[in-house]
Design brief:
Radius of gyration: 26 Å
Largest sheet: 10 strands, mixed
CATH architecture of the largest domain: Alpha-Beta Complex
CATH superfamily of the largest domain: Spore Coat Polysaccharide Biosynthesis Protein SpsA, Chain A
CATH topology of the largest domain: Spore Coat Polysaccharide Biosynthesis Protein SpsA, Chain A
Strand order of the largest sheet: 3-4-5-2-1-6-14-8-15-13
Strand content: 25-35%
Number of strands: 26
Shape: elongated
Helix content: 10-25%
CATH class of the largest domain: Alpha Beta
Length: about 450
Amino acid sequence: MMKNTIFISIASYRDSELIPTLKNMVEHSASPEKLFISVCWQDEKPDFSVFTDMGATEKEYSENNPDVIRLSYLGATLNIHFVQYYQAKGACWARHCCEQYYTDEDYFLQIDSHCRFIPDWDSELIEYYLSLKNDFRKPIISGYPPGYTPATEDKEEELHQAVARMVFNHFNDIDIPSFIPVSLLDPEQHTRGCFLAGGFIFSAGQFVLDVPNDPQIFFLGEEISMSARAFTHGYDVIYPNKIFLYHFYTRTGCDRIWGDHTTEKKEKKVVEKSWVERDKISKGRVRQLLGIQESDDINLGIYCLGTERTLEEYEYLTGIFFSEQLVDKALLSNTKPTYFEHMPASRDVWISQLYSDYYKTVDINKSELTANDDSIDYWSLGVFSEDNQLIAMQRLTTAEFAEQESVNNKNIYQFEIKLKDKSHLIPKKLRLAPFFTDCGWGETVEKVW
């Protein structure tokens, strides 16, 4: 029988908002005694008095394991695992540490250590989750919650009220997709999605066992890798139309691991690895998981994809071809769908309809071409950077070239250019030239990208 217990994972890195978050979460809970909170507390020194000062009482402590303490606060159980912040290894490593204290609770909640909660958030979340079970076998409630601004000496705490969904934004410099929040298209009902947010995940407790955090994912790529793994384990992401909690986003001036784990600190042997080293390992694992690269040196182990659904099915759902960084054109529109419901007729048909983050339709007037006859062997269409580095080249037969004629204007050829988003090569020029078998290249037409 379900007891409605909730296992709560909180990764906290030198965060002054941790204690206010814990207090607010427990005080706003409908059933504090059913909360089992696991905190990976990355800070300067293990002074557990910060927890007893807020009113928590000690339940269990051993000198043999001095960095771990179990506390009770208003009936909730707190497992605090202290890590000196120079020993930290990244966000997902901290979440992984939290998950070691999972003991078969009914539900799982993953948050960051800077949150605020609505009254009775726990019973409200469970009720909302159970309503989703009517339509989804394994729902995940996730997304970017509305923001809050902590109180200051001369200003009260401010809670924002916008609910959002997560949509594709762009590919970063190592081909991993990133996301942005946009408003729900229909605020009266939930929205199915493809991407979960690391700072807010609520699902069945089994999620901890099915999709545990990969401790080698440092930060970037956390959300897309967890999303792909969750989908292939049979889970579906839902963006709620109801607010359950708030998140502190700006955090200007707060301590971050990349400010502490620098190359200089590594050279002084203060930290084992710089954040740049961990980030490189992390990105390689994400690229491997998504099929962007294949390396015999990377072993994902238990942090691989699931077997209930495939990565290809996930690509169809997201509209993203990960290995080639191509996307469904609708993802570049203003409305930006959160998922694509229908499976394509075939893989080849689906791929043929995709666009890159860099895509363009270029018009060339027929009068600009000095030659266009049967003696042409083929046409070459090239895209170049400012310093004339070749980004992409396409050969067109005369028949293929003729097919580019505009439907609306017979005097114009229209070329649809699709490129991968590579930050180190920015398209600036487009060149079109005919090649003749007997005399080589003809006159080149150049256009500004």
